[in-house]
Write a structure and sequence with these properties.
With 278 residues, this protein is of the alpha+beta class. 34% of the residues lie in helices and 30% in strands.
Length: 278
């Protein structure tokens, strides 16, 4: 049950412990030590500031009771159910061509920076469809545009080494001005990643229930068809189980406040070390 918390906290905690564990003689007395400490302090303060945002989001999640579709009220609403496709409102993943209701795609290119080669993001985008969320009491339409979507399932393709890109992916890249062949016929190396929500996925949704503009008043026999869940103060969709959603966001709060404090202290330590105070 602690895995989401440990995973979220690991990055800043590990960075801080590594900094504090360096022996003093491993640092030169140059001014770069001081500037590095300043950068760590700034990073810690930014992480601490982000913690306030995560705290507000965590409060919204904990203070909003989970509703059933049939009994939900207008305004902020928390739902949990299964995705059903909305006829003619599905989209397709751009690289694999899978039918889905939401997709985020990322294109990265492997580029040289001196002696190093790194993956560099060159393009990204989001495809929004419409879908129904169904529970045991009924279904309601959801429009995921501008939602913070937390989804673990993804597909990745690369033409690095002996890999190849699907034909659909090649057409998608060329349509956006990205050719796999560079100057003088040399091949460019890409990594393509797509994250998606599909019919049948169980999802948690925290959003705002409003009148459905796609349905005229009085034309629906079922009350929930007059309602659509979309963006508001905080719009969040996750494939995590309900219990894990709460643990994950609590872990983010600890990451922001705890990790921010640790990084700030580590940066201050480096600055004081350069000044000869410690």
């Amino acid at each position: 049950m602690w895995y989401p918390m440990l995973k979220a906290f690991a990055c800043p905690a590990r960075s801080t412990l590594m900094l504090l564990s360096f022996p003093c003689d491993s640092f030169s007395m140059g001014v770069e030590v001081f500037y590095f400490g300043v950068a760590v302090v700034i990073g810690g303060l930014l992480l601490f500031y982000r913690g306030f945002r995560w705290f507000r989001e965590n409060q919204l999640i904990h203070n909003t009771p989970t509703s059933k579709v049939r009994s939900m009220a207008m305004g902020r609403v928390e739902l949990y159910g299964t995705i059903e496709s909305c006829p003619k409102k599905e989209v397709k993943t751009p690289f694999s061509g899978l039918p889905c209701v939401w997709c985020k795609w990322v294109v990265e290119e492997r580029r040289s920076y001196g002696d190093d080669k790194k993956w560099t993001k060159v393009k990204e985008g989001v495809l929004n469809g419409l879908f129904y969320l169904r529970d045991e009491t009924g279904k309601v339409m959801v429009y995921p545009k501008n939602a913070d979507v937390d989804v673990p399932q993804f597909r990745e393709y690369s033409n690095r080494m002996f890999g190849s890109l699907p034909q659909g992916a090649l057409s998608f890249l060329e349509g956006r001005g990205l050719k796999t062949s560079g100057l003088f016929g040399s091949d460019r190396t890409f990594r393509l990643t797509e994250y998606f929500l599909m019919p049948g996925d169980e999802v948690y949704v925290l959003g705002t229930a409003r009148d459905n503009p796609l349905v005229e008043d009085g034309t629906s026999d079922i009350n929930e068809e007059d309602i659509i869940v979309c963006g508001g103060e905080f719009f969040y969709i996750s494939r995590r189980p309900l219990k894990d959603v709460h643990e994950y966001h609590a872990a983010k709060v600890i990451t922001g406040f705890g990790g921010g404090i640790l990084l700030t202290l580590a940066g201050v330590y480096l600055m004081l070390y350069y000044l000869g105070i410690v």
